[in-house]
Design a protein that fits this description.
7-stranded mixed beta sheet; two-stranded antiparallel sheet; globular
Length: 187
């Protein structure tokens, strides 16, 4: 399938999930993440969930990171430029939901892309080679290209891998891992 068809398929599949299923599967994904060989790093970039789009609830993963005393970095998106700024989450961080439903830090200690060790990546679908389909704006592909080459990219998905995404481009950044409620993929 191509990206447009996969995007449509998985937006509908997500919409069919109950809030209870979202919570249970999000917790299962966080528990699966505990088995990844990524916990010796320092700076972890995490996306915060768009509740209306039934994205994975990353609060469970946030709690894991905080419990392991890791630096948690959150993004703020600029929809005019397509760029993202990244801020260290502290006790003083003020979060606001933007007009797209994304909780974002307002300001704080800015972190550069090359300082990140692990990035948890949102997605709608992914394939057996580690390619992903997002909402189609390219925010994460641009962001990941600015990270250091050894950054570990971990996708999070409610659903299992598709065999192949037909229209992958050289601009698309592949994942190193993807975690579902029942499985951990390594690419």
């Amino acid at each position: 399938m191509n990206k447009a068809a996969l995007r449509q398929k998985y937006i509908q599949a997500r919409e069919a999930l109950t809030q209870e299923e979202v919570e249970e599967q999000s917790l299962a994904i966080a528990n699966q993440c505990l088995h990844l060989p990524i916990w010796d790093k320092i700076n972890y970039h995490l996306f915060l969930s768009i509740v209306q789009k039934k994205e994975i609830d990353t609060d469970y993963l946030l709690q894991v990171l905080a419990g392991k005393d890791k630096n948690i970095i959150l993004s703020k998106s600029d929809f005019k430029t397509g760029d993202m700024q990244h801020f260290l989450l502290t006790d003083n961080t003020v979060l606001r939901v933007n007009s797209y439903g994304i909780p974002e830090p307002q300001d704080g200690i800015q972190i550069q892309e090359n300082q990140l060790d692990v990035v948890f990546v949102p997605l709608l679908a992914f394939d057996e080679k580690g390619h992903r389909v997002g909402y189609g704006k390219g925010f994460y592909d641009r962001f990941l290209q600015q990270c250091k080459p050894e950054v570990i990219k971990v996708g999070l998905s409610f659903f299992e891998a598709e065999p192949c995404i037909e229209d992958v481009s050289s601009f698309d950044m592949a994942l190193d891992y993807c975690v579902t409620p029942t499985k951990r993929y390594k690419f």
